[in-house]
Each structure stands twice: as structure tokens, then as C-alpha cells.
TrEMBL record:
The name this protein goes by in its record: LisH domain-containing protein
Regions of compositional bias (Low complexity) in chain numbering: 283-296
SMART domains the record matches: WD40
Domain of life: Eukaryota
Residue numbers spanned by region Disordered: 283-302
SUPFAM superfamilies membership: Quinoprotein alcohol dehydrogenase-like
Entries under InterPro entries matching the protein: LisH, Quinoprotein_ADH-like_sf, WD40/YVTN_repeat-like_dom_sf, WD40_rpt
Length: 485
């Protein structure tokens, strides 16, 4: 039936909203519709809205920073062929995809709104292995793996759980009152684990699990409903950051020279990155047991991602992704409307003492207003120089979108999600959209992405890239490199 064709109805609504009455009458007759079947919405496009949108787009171009067209960084071949996993029991919206690969024992985990956690193999034919039913008691929103053996996950219930790769529950805590939207994990000095969670209760919790208890532990079985087998391993948070707005994203990054660990966070309605320095205290750093180690967590600096722009072009850094080959390079997907902005930023690790004005102590020594203004301008210039790329991805978004960006595993480009069912690949040197992957239902939200390698036990030199995507069309795709033969 023509009335069910959404594109026909959209065109008819556009003609009606702009008072093209004669054209509308002819169009409706051709489409077999009546004017009563065309109901206007408050957000229907008009010529005036299109012109206003074009004006805003032209203004935003002035703040973009693009690369050199002759310095292409996108490498071929790249994932482009969509493959659906065999026997995958898709029943609800996909919320999170995550994975790891190595030694032929890799895995891809997929969580859905029906509270399930699915385990799939990261090599053709991408078989579905098993589903862990309702491990959190609520939908799982984020996952992070350490060493390929242990998986941290957070959920809408505010819980943080640690599972073995086999699926056995090791420990769990519930320190967030609302959605725990992200978990990240990494290593502090002496190889000690650091885990951070962010929640809608405007808190970031940092944990230092007593992982030495796991050294002689060999998990077996996959019954997630059992009680934790090592209760207390996660312990209480070593530090809690209270944020004035909801934390949006986090990344754990080591300083390239000192190898100190920094937690980098972003907040809603702020264009800053906030740095938190995590160290073991000097008196206890040589301790053989993590239970005897104490930690220091201090806010050490911040970095403005819009140092010279006005408030009306502000955005929120909604997804932070460190480059796999250069962790000091950050890809940032923003909540900018109506299309996602992508930034490629060099991290400016803080030096010296820190003040809330984002200036070091030496830069504030000047007592004159002119000297302080010059110091502030110098900071803005450094922050502006750190932004290597600032471009429009043309990926449509709404205020309810969840921007996502993932690096290709070789560090040669990124993929971003969108609300139109299309995944876009961008060259991080030129800023151009060089790939459009269409497989999800048109107009559906692609909510989550993960990039890695096929893991079938073959040598590393022969491994092929894969991209995994999940969306609100209840489908998961493995994007593979097409054979060149």
C-alpha cells in the first residue's frame, strides 16, 4: 500500500508544510493517497527550516580543522562485507558489543535489552556459542576485558561485575545508584589493576582489585547465577569523583615518558577533558600484595576541546577512544546536533602544579592583567594545536543518541555510528568519509561498535580486520574484508 511507504508520506508532508497545494494535489493523486492521510508533525521540514539549517552548517564550517588531502591515512583493504552470525538468537535491541582476540581464543560479547549476554566466535562463520541469561538482573551497558581472561561489566542496575572468560562470576559490587554506563580497565605501576566506572548518579568510581588472589585461581563452569566465588576481590573504591554533570566517557592512558596512569573523563555540557593522576604511594609501592598498597588519585589538569569557540557552538565529548598504536592520540565522537562531529586530539598531559583556571603555577606568577591574558592565550593556542582534526561526519544524531567511535586495529582510520543505520569510516589524516557500510535497517540506530581482528589461530601477519556492529533493529553484523582475488 502506498500509505505505508514512509518516503512517499514524508514528501507529501513536505509539500503540505510548504503550501505547495497544486503540486501536493497532483502528487497525492499519483501516490493514491488522500490529504487526510498526510498528518503534519511539529518537526516537519519547511523551506525556512532548511535555510536555517544551511546557515548553521556554514557557520560550523569555520570551526572545522581538516587535514591535507594528499596525506591519506586510510589503508586498504578495510572491512566492508556484512555477515550475520549463525544461529544468533536476536530478540531485542543490541546495547553493547565488546571483544578481544589472541592465540585463537578470542571472543565477541553481545548484550541486549532482554538482559542477555551472548558469546560469539570472532572468526568465520562467526558462530553463536552460548547465552548467559540475566547475569546482572538488568541490561548490561558496558564491558571491558583484561588479559583476555577476565571481563568487567556494568549495567542499568548500577552493578560492577567481574567474570571469568568461562562466564563464572568472581565478584560484584553495587556502588552506583543509577545506570553504570561505562567501565574501563588498565594497569597502574607494577602491573596492578585499575578499574573505573561511570554512572548517571554523577559519580566516577575507581577500583584497585586485589588481583593477586586470581593468580592461582583456575575458573571453570559458566553458571553466572552462583554467588561470587571470591567475594571482596573488587573491594571498595579507592577514590570517587563527584561530577557536577553526568560523566559521558572515560579512557585510561599511560603517560608516554613516565608511564604513570591517567584516567581521562568527559562530562555532559562541557567541552573539557579532565585528567586524574593515579599512582601507588611511594611508601607502599613495592609491596608484594595489592591489599597492602595504597593509592593516590588527584585531578591534575584539564584540556579544552573548543579553546577559541563561543558557547553557542559547544558540544559534549561523548565517546573517547585511544588510538591502538599511539595511546596519546584520542578519537572523540561528540553529541553535536544535527550531525556528529569527530575530533582527533593529541593529549596534553599536565605538568607542574594544577589550578582550576587550567594554568600551571608558573603561568600564574605574573601579577598584571596583561601577563595573565597572555598566559591564558598561550594555553588556548596549545590546546588548539593539539586538535589535529575537527570535522563533520554527516552521521545524523538526536538528543537521545549515543555517539560511538572505534579505531581500526592498525590505527589507520576510525568508524562511527549513526541513527540512520549507516556506519561511516573516516580517514584520520584528511577527515574525509571514505567508507559507508549499509547493512542495518534504514533509519535504525546503530548503537554500538567494536573493531579487532579475526581470531582463528593463524599467524598475526595474516589476520584480517573485523568490525562488529549492533543496533536497535535487533541485528548484529560482522563486517569483514572482502577477498581481493
Amino acid at each position: 500500500m502506498p500509505a505505508k511507504n514512509s518516503s512517499v508520506v514524508i514528501v507529501a508532508r513536505f509539500l503540505k508544510a510548504n503550501h505547495y497545494n497544486e503540486t501536493l494535489t497532483a502528487f497525492l493523486a499519483e501516490a493514491g493517497l488522500t490529504e487526510d492521510e498526510v498528518t503534519l508533525n511539529a518537526d516537519d521540514w519547511t523551506i525556512e527550516k532548511i535555510l536555517e539549517e544551511k546557515k548553521q552548517y556554514d557557520v560550523s564550517l569555520a570551526y572545522e580543522k581538516k587535514g591535507d588531502d594528499g596525506d591519506a591515512g586510510w589503508s586498504s583493504p578495510a572491512p566492508s562485507k556484512a555477515v550475520e552470525p549463525e544461529n544468533f538468537p536476536a530478540a531485542s535491541n543490541i546495547l553493547c558489543v565488546s571483544g578481544f582476540s589472541g592465540d585463537g581464543e578470542g571472543a565477541v560479547f553481545v548484550t541486549a535489552a532482554d538482559r542477555s549476554w551472548n558469546h560469539l566466535l570472532p572468526h568465520p562463520p562467526f558462530e553463536w556459542r552460548t547465552a548467559y541469561e540475566n547475569p546482572h538482573g538488568s541490561p548490561i551497558l558496558s564491558m571491558s576485558s583484561l588479559e583476555g581472561k577476565y571481563i568487567f561489566s556494568t549495567s542499568m542496575s548500577g552493578q560492577l561485575m567481574l567474570h571469568a572468560r568461562s562466564g563464572q562470576l568472581i565478584d560484584s559490587v553495587r556502588d552506583h545508584l543509577k545506570y553504570a554506563v561505562q567501565v574501563v580497565s588498565g594497569y597502574a605501576q607494577h602491573g596492578r589493576w585499575i578499574v573505573a566506572t561511570a554512572g548517571w548518579d554523577q559519580k566516577v568510581h575507581i577500583y584497585a582489585p586485589e588481583h593477586d588472589l586470581l593468580e592461582n585461581f583456575q575458573p571453570s563452569g559458566n553458571n553466572l547465577r552462583d554467588e561470587p566465588i571470591i567475594p571482596g576481590l573488587l573491594r571498595d573504591p579507592i577514590h570517587t569523583v563527584l561530577t557536577p554533570t553526568v560523566p559521558e566517557s572515560m579512557a585510561l592512558v599511560q603517560h608516554p615518558d613516565t608511564h604513570d596512569l591517567y584516567l581521562i573523563t568527559s562530562r555532559r555540557d562541557s567541552t573539557f577533558l579532565y585528567y586524574y593522576h593515579i599512582t601507588t604511594t611511594s611508601s607502599e609501592s613495592s609491596s608484594s600484595r595489592s591489599s597492602e598498597t595504597t593509592y593516590s588519585v588527584q585531578e591534575s589538569g584539564r584540556q579544552n576541546l573548543a579553546p577559541h569557540s563561543n558557547a553557542w557552538v559547544a558540544f559534549t565529548p561523548s565517546c573517547l577512544a585511544p588510538c591502538p598504536t599511539d595511546p596519546t592520540l584520542l578519537a572523540i565522537a561528540t553529541s553535536h546536533l544535527p550531525h556528529m562531529k569527530l575530533l582527533i586530539v593529541r593529549l596534553l598531559f599536565p605538568t607542574g602544579s594544577y589550578s582550576s583556571s587550567n594554568s600551571s603555577a608558573s603561568e600564574l606568577l605574573s601579577q598584571t592583567q596583561a601577563g595573565q591574558a597572555r598566559a591564558a592565550l598561550a594555553i588556548q593556542d596549545r590546546e588548539d594545536a593539539a586538535i589535529k582534526l575537527h570535522v563533520n561526519t554527516m552521521a545524523p544524531q538526536t538528543p537521545y543518541s549515543t555517539p560511538q567511535v572505534v579505531w581500526r586495529p592498525g590505527g589507520k582510520g576510525v568508524f562511527v555510528n549513526a541513527d540512520d543505520g549507516v556506519i561511516r569510516g573516516l580517514d584520520t589524516q584528511t577527515g574525509k568519509v571514505v567508507a559507508t557500510l549499509r547493512g542495518h535497517e534504514v533509519g535504525s540506530k546503530v548503537r554500538t561498535l567494536w573493531a579487532g581482528y579475526e581470531d582463528d589461530g593463524s599467524p598475526n601477519d595474516n589476520k584480517k580486520e573485523i568490525l562488529v556492529s549492533g543496533g536497535f533493529d535487533k541485528r548484529v553484523f560482522f563486517w569483514t574484508v572482502e577477498d581481493q582475488s
